[in-house]
Design brief:
Helix content is 44%, strand content 16%. The chain contains six helices and six strands, in the order H-E-E-H-H-H-E-E-H-E-E-H. A two-stranded antiparallel ribbon has the order 1-2. A two-stranded antiparallel ribbon has the order 3-4. A two-stranded antiparallel ribbon has the order 5-6.
Length: 184
């Protein structure tokens, strides 16, 4: 019987792979947290993204995944069009490619990597390209000042502001209410 995967402690999961990688860093009770502080955390993230059957949670994969996360962070949270940040993501993308395939089910695509340890980071960078092609204006950072999480806004009208209405959205509403009650 395989060992159970440890619990994923992150407050926001289930986002597209690129944003899910960014969300391996979060704040909890005023302290910075990092799921990718070690190989066990990498294993949790790989399992959450359905990648644990394809990639090892080892030191080289952790190192390359952190490189990809830092590159994505520079693009998503940095100045728009920052050439150095774009080059960092492009460098990650240089470690893989898509190979066209033909299977009994029809045409397909298969990612290939010179070094499989680049696989998870490359897939996250490739996913970011897909989000940019689909709806770049829907890639968002949580509007709460103390939150560092990101999400892809899938709301009908595209006005989602919070990573979670139950957490950050509620804190913001409570803060506004407290400010109004103090003014009275």
């Amino acid at each position: 019987m395989p060992a159970a995967t440890p619990h994923d402690p992150r407050p926001l999961t289930g986002e597209p792979l690129s944003l899910d990688l960014l969300n391996t860093r979060w704040n909890q009770d005023g302290a910075a947290q990092d799921l990718l502080a070690d190989e066990e955390g990498l294993g949790i993230w790989l399992a959450a993204g359905g990648l644990d059957d394809r990639f090892a949670a080892d030191a080289p994969t952790l190192r390359h995944t952190l490189t990809a996360r830092d590159a994505l962070h520079a693009v998503v949270d940095g100045a728009p069009g920052d050439a150095a940040a774009l080059a960092r993501v492009d460098k990650v993308l240089g470690h893989g490619r898509i190979r066209a395939t033909l299977t009994p089910e029809g045409p397909g695509e298969e990612p290939e990597f010179g070094d499989p340890a680049w696989g998870p980071g490359w897939l996250a960078a490739r996913d970011y390209l897909g989000l940019l092609a689909k709806a770049p204006d829907r890639i968002r950072a949580c509007a709460h000042d103390a939150c560092v999480l990101h999400f892809f806004d899938t709301s009908r009208n595209g006005t989602r502001r919070w990573c979670s209405m139950a957490a950050c959205g509620n804190r913001a509403k409570a803060s506004r209410h407290y400010a109004r009650s103090r003014e009275s």
